[in-house]
Amino acid sequence: MRPSTLLLTALALSPLVMSPGCEENCYEIEITPRQNRLDREITFYRKDVKALDDGAVQTIYVPMPEDELSKASAPYRRQLATSDPNIHRYSGTFVGHTPGDVGGAGYHKYVSTQMGSASLYMERFRGNDDLSGQLIRSFKAADRLTDMLLGWLRSEIAPYGTLNKYGRLMQFIDTKLRRDIKNLSVYMWTGKIRQAWETDGREDLAVRVLLYFCEREYLRPEQLPVLLRAVQAEGGGLNARALEIVRDIVASKAGLDPSGPLDEPLAFLATPESLVGSMNAYLRTTAEYRALMAKWQRDKRQSPDQAPSKAPEPTDALEMIVSDLIGIHPSGPGAASVSVKLNLTVKPVYTNAEKAENQPAVYQWSSAISGRTSDRTSGLPPVCYAVWAEPDEQFQKAHFGKIVFHDEDLVEYCLWHLGLGDSERRQWDEFARSLAPDQDLLKRLEAFRFDNEKTPDEGHKESPESHAAKIIARIAKSLEGSAEQTSPASPTP
């Protein structure tokens, strides 16, 4: 994607999504929790969608890049058979963490108690969770982009000896435009984060940024369709009408009459061709372009078969900076997607996965992800998570007469139990095993204290609260509710 398209898209307030090619890396993960273990099976492949002459499409499987293939298969020892040599399937068992096969990080925690168990699964897939680093990189890119714009204008105006005439324009670019470019990067960053939760995040971002630039007299609302058409046009470059808007902005910020004739030092803004030619000439003088050329020449010498045959374009230098600015980076050899299938035995207490149709406890989640494991795009990375609880019905009914902890209550109980010291845990477990669903159950619960806690003072109405007080209160509430439901109905008067 050309940098002019990247920047125009941002300014025209269509949140930028890199257009993927036809080829796509796909990762399908199936997870079956077994107490403290996760049985994990991954299927991955690279597919290409071809358009046929009759209008239909055909999906074929093509070889996956070797580095991606090695990354995904490395954590596994068992390879499974597939129907196509370009489809790869592996399985393995993991304890405590996920293998990082797709790229990212994940964890699994299993907490077992007499009352039942609680489990947490959470996994990030690729992306970049260094949020402060993202903002720092965007601001550095905004400063560099502003400095390059100033350098470009000086290179065009200086030969005419009229730099002082455009001091107001230079001051505007160095201060207000610099600030506004940074604010644009923050808008784009927060917009991508909002889209992680809200389906209308894209529209909200567009309205906010449009309002921001209209309020600062960069654009008028009626000019937006012109910019959108320029972005959507084949080639993604400036057209003549969009360039008129650019000239109006430059003239007004320089204190010139936008309706008057174009000053000679600004003649490079006359046509899209002259603007692009001028920009390319300046970009060839930048450190970024020289670094790209040096790398290309070095690669040609060291690996002539693998290095690109064509030298870098001047706009490649600008594209790197604009990509850092708005947090969107070219994804190399195509885009990628990941899907997760969770085979549970109960309905999860919390999850961002969706229940599969006609499968009682199977939950599915999917997301687009960066095209390569090395990509460091901004915004929140895709995350899949689930929390579930499985009560020990036999134990709870034997000692309380009913299920007193399940779902969210059981999750909180397991966390409380996990936080106990070793001595406290032994004492509580022994106490729970000694309980029976009789008339003394509530009294025994209310009287419980850990050995390191003060016992109630005789003759005092108030007694020190135990660390187990909230747990005991939840048990009592559950038991009292059960008693109310089973008590005989009052006679009708």
Descriptors:
493 residues, alpha+beta, 3 domains, 8-stranded mixed beta sheet, 4-stranded antiparallel beta sheet, disordered N terminus
Q: What does this 3D model show about the protein?
A:
The chain has 493 residues and is an alpha+beta fold. The protein has 15 helices and twelve strands. Strands 1, 2, 3, 4, 5, 8, 10 and 11 form an eight-stranded mixed beta sheet that branches. A four-stranded antiparallel beta sheet has the order 6-7-12-9. A hairpin with a 2-residue loop joins strand 6 (104-113) and strand 7. Mean pLDDT is 84; it is low at 1-21, 330-334 and 484-493.
Count of all domains = 3
- Tell me the major beta sheet: 8 strands, mixed
CA-based shape:
elongated
Any idea what the radius of gyration is? 32 Å
Average pLDDT value?
84
Low-confidence segments: 1-21, 330-334, 484-493
Count of alpha/pi helices: 15
In short:
This protein has helices spanning 3-11, 66-73, 131-157, 167-194, 201-215, 224-232, 240-253, 272-283, 287-302, 314-326, 393-400, 407-418, 422-434, 441-447, 469-486, and strands spanning 24-34, 37-51, 57-62, 78-80, 87-95, 104-113, 116-125, 335-343, 350-351, 354-355, 362-369, 383-391. The protein is of the alpha+beta class. It folds into three domains: 3-16 and 129-326, no CATH class; 24-125 and 336-388, no CATH class; 391-486, no CATH class.
